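Entry 14. Structure prediction run on the chain below.
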Amino acid sequence: MATATIADTPYAPTHPEIRDAVRALCLKFDGAYWRTLDRERGYPTAFVKALTEAGWLSILIPEEYGGAGLGISAASAVLEEIHRAGCNAAACHAQMYIMGTVLRHGSKEQKQRYLPKIASGEMRLQAFGVTEPSSGTDTLSLRTTAVKKNNSTYIVNGQKVWTSRAEHSDLMLLLARTTPKEQQGQAKRTEGLSVFLVDMRETLNKGLTIRPIRTMMNHNSTEVFFDNMEVPAENLIGVEGQGFRYILSGMNAERVLIASECIGDGRWFIEKAVNYAKERKLFGRPIGQNQGVQYPIARAYTQIEAADLMVRKAATLFEAGINAGADANMAKMLASEAAWAAAEMCVQTHGGFGFAEEYDIERKFREARLYTVAPISTNMVLNFVAEHVLGLPRSY
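Output returned:
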């Protein structure tokens, strides 16, 4: 019933020098910049360009391919500080963890062809085509097919949904069924899915259609449709039929990185609330002098600090090569819920001003809500812990 241990393993470093540099970069992109994008549903091109040129998006790519070759704790520091500064890394964070599938399972030729260009910013790998309207989190039931036409081409048909950043990415990592489900059998239910790198510059309007989905936050979400889209066989990652395993291998990194963004959001909300509670005066005294205002702020701070320890533990296990599945999932759940609680507290502290656009709180409030649902919902995390940690019967 115990999760992985970090006995005799020191916590991963916190990288203060990285945090200082990222925060300095974020100062160039103030609230007005993000409010304009939010109103226009725009993509933060200048912000992503600045992060790319500074090398922050290639921090996990090995040096031999043009990256910094650092660990997940360094990437976590980058994303946490972006969110703590009031910015939003959702426009580009996927580039950090999606490329891991190519790095771990791609051929030598694929890594040499794509990773240096991703590291330099010449190519963007931001889109992750997995979720479908009918299957949702039940990935093994996806219906998008990739049928081998000959030895050189796969023909893809189907649909994906919630494929964020597809309009602003050059490449998509696509999970599709290469073996019909009815031919697999229960014993091999995790097989039959394959991963492809799709060059969307070549396939857009040539079998690939992208449609934006308008949501409560500016997340650049889309649905994508494949109609006899051709993908070169050389773009298959690893072995045909093993794609589900390849995708799973990158999810722990995704959980840790998203959790780090939540910690950054939570700290932003807390700093906002503390400053306002000190400055705002009613009935001749600062509102922060009232315990009814103090206690929610203190509780939010306590929750964020506790969640941060879980995130650091998961990052430490990941960097040590220890299975971090349970810890990464718990870190994401705890950090997202702590950030959401801090968001609610921040709005209450500000009262009516919390809803005013110029304070940025309502924007960050909407953004923080996302991560209690995506990329994995709280219920699915609890399912995982119940079955794989506590040994309870599988519930689905």
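The first strand starts at residue 125 and ends at 129.
Filed with the rest of this week's runs.
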